[in-house]
Amino acid sequence: MKKMVNLILIISLSITMKLAFAHSDGHGEVDANKAISLAQKAATMLSIKDYDMAVGQIDESWSTLEKHHFEVIKQDQSAYFVKAINQISSQTLYFTISKTGQIQEVQESMPTK
Q1: What is the pTM of this model?
Q2: Is 43 exposed, middle or buried (0-12, 13-18, 19+ CB in 10 A)?
């Protein structure tokens, strides 16, 4: 039964993440709170599977982080830059989220953009 629940959870998260990565430009701009939510979802999904981001698949402890572990550290006309600190794995990641809600990059160093 536990395996079934885990499988359903993984499938649901996978679908959600694919939608977040493929978010179209027709839905208007996201705000800083939404950018943080998207980064949090991306971290959860990347802890399950490699989505061809610079960091690859990350430690599963990323799926347990709460919103207060994520913060918008910079924004420009086209994107939000979200920093996330995982004290369990001693890792910091930087998420670049477009103003339209698309996950553009996830990397271990601050983007130079």
Answers
A1: 0.75
A2: buried
Residue 55 CB coordination number (10 Å):
18
Paired strand residues for 106: 95
Cβ neighbours of residue 3 closer than 8 Å, sequence gap 6 or more: none
Evaluate if residue 103 carries a pLDDT over 50. yes
Q: Around Cβ 21, how many Cβ atoms within 10 Å?
A: 18
- Is residue 55 within 8 Å of residue 106, measured between CB atoms? yes
**Each residue's pLDDT tens digit, 11-48:** 655 555 554 554 444 557 899 999 999 999 999 999 99
Residues 97, 35 contacting (CB under 8 angstroms):
yes
40: amino acid identity, one letter: Q
3-state secondary structure (DSSP) of residue 89? coil
